[in-house]
Write a structure and sequence with these properties.
Number of helices: 15
Order of helices and strands: HHHHHHHHHHHHHHH
Largest sheet: none
CATH topology: Tetracycline Repressor, domain 2
Number of strands: 0
Radius of gyration: 19 Å
CATH superfamily: UbiA prenyltransferase
Shape: globular
CATH architecture: Orthogonal Bundle
Number of domains: 1
Oligomer: single chain
Strand content: under 5%
């Protein structure tokens, strides 16, 4: 089966296929790490390469996930209308999109600094392993969190070529935030996952305990974000952003306990504002000199 010709319609399907809007979960944190490492604006070259790496990594990860899970998605009533099961895109096209994403990541990593180049194989392993983990372990949520959370540390490494406490704290914050709402998202497929023999925290521990784990994970995320404030001294703008993030996380944890699919999706989508709010807090804190 050949890849589809590129037309405006297929481009739109490509963006839908990789859920391009979900890049907003991690991209603001990557920018935040980049700005903190540089103490301000790092220059257009670094900004462009960080953006290229993030878009490439996120697109490759989603494309691989969709290709690897195509049969599972086809059997799941909630996901059977995704592009590959519905026949709007082929598996080969998905693999081509994944290869393009990985190429963007590789070029950006090679052009940034020796450490980003050296970490490329590690990044590729993390990106490709996740879709298989739900078949073997309920820890898959935390692997996903660690994978996406690396974006925050990646922004720092892109500027400095090294790790630091701030980079690790941002990685922990983003990773546990992602894992916490991925556990919630897993509630949507609980019945199907049980029938299909797939693994998740809701499947392993039940709904009530899964919600407790999600809440605890989000608490860790908040504490890690607060640690950045104490370490970097970004002042009141970051503090306001931290407070707004706490409100969003609390809303998500309270709302999802109604266990209604529409509410679960709304609470999941509410996460889109967290990264943007935290980025604004970092920008404001740096602009005011902490």
């Amino acid at each position: 089966m050949s890849a589809e010709p590129v037309t405006p319609g297929t481009v739109a399907r490509y963006f839908a296929f990789v859920k391009f809007e979900h890049t907003l979960f991690a991209l603001p944190f990557a920018y935040g790490g980049m700005l903190l490492a540089a103490g301000g604006w790092p220059g257009w070259r670094t900004f462009a390469l960080v953006t290229m790496a993030m878009v490439g990594a996120r697109s490759a990860a989603m494309a691989l996930n969709r290709v690897i899970d195509a049969r599972v998605d086809a059997a799941n009533p909630r996901t059977r209308d995704r592009e590959i099961p519905a026949g709007r895109l082929s598996r080969r096209t998905g693999l081509v999109l994944a290869a393009v994403g990985l190429a963007l990541l590789a070029v950006a990593g090679a052009l940034l600094n020796p450490l980003t180049l050296a970490l490329l194989p590690v990044a590729v392993v993390f990106l490709t392993v996740y879709p298989y983990l739900k078949r073997v372990t309920w820890l898959c949520h935390f692997w996903l969190g660690a994978t996406i959370g690396a974006a925050a540390a990646g922004g720092w490494i892109a500027v400095t070529g090294s790790f630091s406490f701030t980079a690790v704290a941002l990685w922990l914050a983003l990773g546990t935030w992602i894992a916490g709402f991925d556990i919630i998202y897993g509630l949507l497929d609980l019945a199907f996952d049980r029938r299909a023999g797939l693994h998740s925290i809701p499947v392993r521990f039940g709904v009530k305990r899964a919600l407790v784990v999600s809440a605890a994970t989000h608490l860790v995320s908040f504490v890690a974000l607060a640690a950045v404030l104490l370490w970097v001294h970004l002042g009141w703008p970051y503090g306001v952003a931290l407070g707004a993030t706490a409100v969003v996380l609390l809303y998500e944890q309270v709302a999802v306990r109604r266990l209604e699919p529409a509410v679960v999706l709304r609470s999941f989508n509410a996460n889109l504002v967290v990264g943007l709010v935290m980025l604004l807090g970092i920008v404001g804190g740096l602009a005011l000199g902490g």
